[in-house]
Amino acid sequence: MSDKNNKKTFAEKISDQFLNGLIVVIPPAITAFAVYWLLNLTEGTIVQYLPIKFPGVGLVTILLFIWIVGFISGHNLSQKIIHICEFILSKIPVVKFIYSSVKQFSKAIFETDSSFQKVVLVPYHESLALGFLMNNVPQAVREKIGEDYVCVFIPWSLNMTSGKNLFVKKSKVIYVDMKSEEALQFLLTAGTITRK
């Protein structure tokens, strides 16, 4: 095959360059839109009740509120209040499922000792899937499959709240020297974003 046939046409080059431009432009554009929306939301609702007003005061107030909640959540009284609220939420159909799912996923992502610390590759449909080694296999499952299996969570690409748990033989697990944040970013962006 000649070099001429190997070369891309002008239209193909334009198309590739346009796609590359989308990949570069869309993430910051969406981020900017989300920040703009949040600023408008906070400025339009919270600011009107505050005695002090300056650009960004609504966002600062929300960040401060989140920090205060995190600070007081370490005290016994506040922990009891949180447990009572969680108990009430756990009794409401549908709400309990959403709340518990989001809470568990948030803990897994943000806690330093979470299960999302060991990145692995495991066999999946005659290929390999990138995932996270979970802390343990449930006792009921272990009784059926034995001690030679581990649990691996495979997040779905472009969907932060969904995935699949696989029980894989220990001998089939390939450990990857990769930070969990990098692996999660790679998975959630369908491989379009990687750190070099």
In short:
With 196 residues, the protein is of the alpha+beta class. The protein is built from seven helices and five strands, in the order H-H-H-H-H-E-E-H-E-E-E-H.
Descriptive overview:
- By secondary structure, the protein is of the alpha+beta class.
- The protein has three domains: 8-72; 75-113, no CATH class; 119-188, SH3 type barrels, CATH 2.30.30.
- Helix content is 52%, strand content 15%.
- It contains seven helices and five strands.
- The protein has helices at 3-6, 10-45, 57-72, 76-89, 95-110, 139-145, 180-188; strands spanning 119-124, 127-133, 149-155, 163-169, 174-175.
- Strands 4-3-2-1-5 form a five-stranded antiparallel beta sheet.
- Residues 1-5 have low confidence and may be disordered.
Number of separate helices: 7
Relative helix content:
40-55%
Order of helices and strands: HHHHHEEHEEEH
Structural class, judged by helices and strands? alpha+beta
Sheet bearing the most strands, described? Answer: 5 strands, antiparallel
CATH topology-level fold name of the largest domain: SH3 type barrels
Q: Quickly give the CATH architecture of the largest domain.
A: Roll
Basic shape = flat
Overall mean pLDDT stands at 75
Q: Name the poorly predicted regions.
A: 1-5
Task: Calculate the terminal CA-CA distance, rounded to whole Å.
Answer: 34 Å
Any idea what the radius of gyration is? 23 Å
Count of beta strands: 5
β-sheet strand percentage: 5-15%
Q: Spatial order of the strands in the main sheet? A: 4-3-2-1-5
- What's the CATH class of the largest domain, please? Mainly Beta
Q: What's the structural domain tally?
A: 3
